[in-house]
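ingest -> validate -> predict -> emit
validate: passed (alphabet ok, no gaps, 115 aa)
predict: started
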Amino acid sequence: QVQLVESGGGLVQPGGSLRLSCVASGIIRSINTMGWYRQAPGKERELVASMNYDGWANYADSVKGRFTISRDNVKNMVYLQMNTLKPEDTAVYYCYFAAYGKDDWGKGTLVTVSS
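emit:
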């Protein structure tokens, strides 16, 4: 099992930036994907961005050009740099770790974009 802890959420004005971090601990298999989902009030959880161990990234259309995912395989960390934030980015952001058909999730960090 993999434990995930997110940090970096908070309140930011529209147009601002935030950087989310997530650290994984436990049994870390080398062939894995890490990434971020989010869930806004009243909506389903949706994929924001993911990156496999080799560095291939995938983004939701709604965040392309504004968000950047990166990871540090030595530290078992994944990051999400969020720029030009919009009110519709407000959500709880969850870090996830996927390997060999098993997913593990963090508890989430709240991002609120509001003036």
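DSSP finds no helices and eleven strands in the chain.
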